[in-house]
Amino acid sequence: MWTLRSWQGRFLPHPLPAHERLRAYAGWCTAVEGNTTFYATPARETVASWARQTAPDFRFVAKLPKVVTHERRLSGADEELRAFLHAIEPLGPRLHALWIQLPGSFGPGDVPALTGFLRRLPTDHRYAVEVRHPAFFTDARVVRTLEEALGTVGAEWVPFDTTAFFRTPPTSDAEREAWSRKPRTPLRTRALTDRPIVRYLGRDDPARTVEGWQPWLEQVTGWLREGRSPTFFLHTPDNADAPELARRFHDAVRARLPELAALPEPPPVGPLTLF
């Protein structure tokens, strides 16, 4: 995510070697979704480079490879899972959670498979599960069943809030593409652990993104007051303004909770001058 072309020269210095871009991104935000790990397990040395570019308290939420979650559906992928866990080991304390994103076809009848999979996982990691089947949001009995399964290993349920995005029709090419691909799931705000993780999708119009996140300001502030340590990931269809918007969200929470630590001051993007 930190290599997005539209950020270069705006949020990240340009030109900048690929192995320095994460360091620059970490000057804007203190967490990142490891979405690229869904498509391929990175080389261990690549992951070691990520660790070198970030502080020990930087948060990676790394997505399990799709061969494990989507192709094998949590069964018969032990070798691929071991290879992935070995590859990400250099992150050390930066690995905030392993993110198990399940396909929309993974429904209530598959919960036993998820339970068995979670119980086989190493206990030295935290886990966060994202489901997309409608029944997990509309059937109270199914919700309880999933929450109980996650609770057996202390795993979190990751909501992907797309309610603001789908409130009105798309107005840009990026929004139209997202309109056809993103899940339409009801809003969920219940946290199961002391480390809730939220994924929020706004609009390409920053004002509408800010309008849509208003309910999360009080929710996140409340979690912090309870002693929880939430991670809030902000997306827009084109993600062009995402780092700046993420900082605006943090500032808005901090206005309600002044004792919350400030984000790091971003390094200058352009060359330093005397005037």
Automatic annotation (TrEMBL):
InterPro entries: DUF72 (IPR002763), UPF0759_sf (IPR036520). Pfam families: DUF72. Gene3D superfamilies: Protein of unknown function UPF0759. This is DUF72 domain-containing protein.
